[in-house]
């Protein structure tokens, strides 16, 4: 696939759509929908949220060159930040040339919490939970989640946790583990917990204070690994050093993890998934050892560089708006995903790829080179340059950046003013010559 899409970024939007259709990445009705502007009727949005007044449109792009677990993917990404798709595609190409990406899902169950704010009799609570959990699980599966059970999922187990309160009392938290199969599962697990609350209260005479899922889903993790073979030893050392920085320093970890989410969030948005839930899960898992740290790690293995991402990435290919939003369905078709595990593993692979691209740039040419070069496009637009002025301004801004190693909107405005002055002088002179 990689070769067939080379030069893709140089095409016009209409040409890109035609090429994707020819190569089979876009079905003809999807290509036509996008060629016609991809407009969605406001009646649909009205069904999603309260007080809808319009749509906030985000560019949808595709990142080529991804081979994950040996399979080629074209990655749809809905994102406004300039450099993300270019960096993803460039890094994926590099990985293709010098290594590979593999992924796995570890565990299947999401977590619901039933909280007993102040436990009155802990021993009795422990005993009753242990004696009754099997029947509770059975009735939750029969009454609340029979559809999920038919699909191979359902409530799997329960566990009682306790926390010491500042007032000396004990807080009890009953964790409910449920396999949501291809759904993210927030609504179904919340319903299961509400159902079990009644049983817990009736049997234990404790007071249940709240029921809600947890986004720290350490029982359903997604792992991606990148192995780069025989790249320069110097680069391996540099990337390992950058990894250590992010592992040790929360200030660096925050930015490292933001870079990882640069790869993940655009896929979640494009496929209609709840990116807030995933963000919460990833960042809380990044602090699992008691201090916020990097969600990725890179190390040397002989002549190879190995990187790993591991976090809860609970996504759905059904549920929420994933089946209702036409763009989400279109993105799923571009990806060719068959289940939630596959979607989650793709997101993990792209997140780790994005991290590798950032670390390579940061430890070699610096952030300015790639990021700011693309940012110049935004600066040209923001400065108010016309269609005729834009290519001249772009060239001058590139030269300015190369020379000064910095650039701002003010620079763009100043340079644009110079261009306008030059053009005015030029036309004055040629007018004088004519007369
Ligand atoms: P949902 O309520 O739409 O339920 C999924 C539906 O898909 C179920 O009715 C199920 O029967 C059906 N289904 C069909 N095929 C399936 C398959 N193969 N596997 C599993 N189910 C299948 O969606 P949900 O996933 O329960 O909840 C997701 C929504 O909840 C999102 O919109 C999210 O924003 C929201 N939410 C999130 C939080 C949180 O993260 N803290 C809290 C509340 C709500």
Task: Summarize the structure in words.
This protein is α+β, with helices and mostly antiparallel strands and 435 residues long. Helices cover 52% and strands 18% of the residues. It contains 15 helices and ten strands. It has helices at residues 13-22, 28-35, 42-48, 84-98, 122-143, 146-150, 186-204, 233-248, 250-270, 275-285, 326-335, 340-363, 367-383, 389-404, 409-434; strands at residues 60-68, 71-78, 99-106, 110-116, 154-164, 170-179, 210-214, 221-228, 296-301, 304-311. Strands 3-8-10-9 form a four-stranded antiparallel beta sheet. Helix 1 (13-22) packs antiparallel against helix 2 and helix 9 (250-270) packs across helix 12. The longest helix is centred in the C-terminal third of the chain and has 26 residues, at 409-434. It is elongated, with a radius of gyration of 26 Å. The termini are far apart. The mean pLDDT is 94. It binds nicotinamide-adenine-dinucleotide (NAD).
The largest sheet is: 4 strands, antiparallel
In N-to-C order, the SSE pattern is: HHHEEHEEHHEEHEEHHHEEHHHHH
Calculate Rg over CA atoms: 26 Å
Instruction: Tell me the total number of β-strands.
Output: 10
Please report the distance between the alpha carbons of the first and last residues: 60 Å
Number of discrete helical segments: 15
Mean pLDDT: 94
Q: Class by helix and strand content?
A: alpha+beta
The assembly state of the depicted protein chains is single chain
Q: Could you estimate the helical fraction of the residues in percent?
A: 40-55%
- Ions, cofactors, ligands: which are bound? nicotinamide-adenine-dinucleotide
Strand composition percent: 15-25%
What is the overall shape? elongated
Strand line-up in the sheet with most strands = 3-8-10-9
Low-confidence stretches: none
């Amino acid at each position: 696939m990689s070769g067939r899409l080379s030069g893709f970024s140089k095409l016009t939007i209409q040409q890109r759509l035609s090429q994707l259709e020819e190569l089979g990445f876009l079905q003809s009705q999807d290509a036509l929908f996008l060629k016609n502007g991809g407009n969605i009727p406001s009646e649909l949005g009205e069904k999603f949220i309260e007080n809808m007044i319009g749509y906030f449109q985000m560019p949808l792009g595709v990142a080529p060159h991804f081979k994950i677990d040996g399979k080629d993917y074209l990655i749809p990404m809905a994102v406004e930040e300039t450099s993300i798709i270019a960096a993803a595609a460039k890094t994926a190409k590099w990985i293709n040339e010098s290594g590979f990406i593999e992924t796995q899902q570890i565990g299947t169950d999401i977590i619901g919490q039933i909280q007993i704010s102040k436990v009155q009799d802990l021993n009795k609570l422990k005993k009753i939970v242990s004696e009754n959990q099997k029947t509770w699980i059975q009735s939750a599966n029969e009454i609340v989640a029979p559809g999920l059970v038919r699909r191979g999922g359902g409530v799997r187990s329960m566990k009682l946790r306790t926390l010491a309160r500042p007032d000396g009392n004990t807080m009890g938290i009953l964790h409910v583990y449920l396999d949501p199969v291809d759904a993210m599962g927030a609504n179904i697990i919340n319903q299961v917990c509400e159902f079990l609350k009644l049983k817990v209260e009736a049997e234990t005479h404790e007071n249940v204070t709240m029921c809600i899922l947890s986004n720290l889903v350490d029982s359903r993790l997604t792992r991606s690994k990148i192995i780069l073979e025989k790249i320069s030893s110097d680069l391996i050392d540099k990337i390992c050093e950058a990894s250590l920085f992010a592992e040790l320093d929360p200030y660096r970890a925050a930015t490292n993890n933001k870079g990882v989410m640069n790869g993940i969030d655009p896929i979640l948005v494009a496929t209609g998934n709840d990116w807030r839930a995933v963000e919460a899960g990833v960042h809380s898992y990044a602090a699992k050892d008691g201090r916020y740290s990097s969600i990725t790690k890179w190390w040397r293995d002989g002549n190879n560089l190995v990187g790993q991402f591991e976090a809860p990435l609970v996504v759905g290919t059904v549920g929420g708006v994933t089946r209702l939003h036409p763009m989400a369905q279109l993105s799923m078709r571009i990806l060719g995903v068959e289940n939630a595990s596959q979607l989650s593993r793709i997101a993990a692979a792209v997140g780790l790829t994005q991290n590798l691209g950032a670390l390579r740039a940061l430890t070699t040419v610096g952030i300015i080179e790639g990021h700011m070069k693309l940012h110049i496009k935004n600066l040209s637009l923001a400065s108010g340059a016309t269609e005729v002025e834009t290519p001249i301004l772009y060239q001058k801004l590139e030269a300015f950046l190369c020379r000064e190693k910095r650039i701002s909107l003010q620079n763009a405005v100043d340079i644009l003013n110079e261009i306008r002055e030059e053009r005015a002088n030029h036309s004055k002179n040629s007018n004088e010559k004519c007369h």
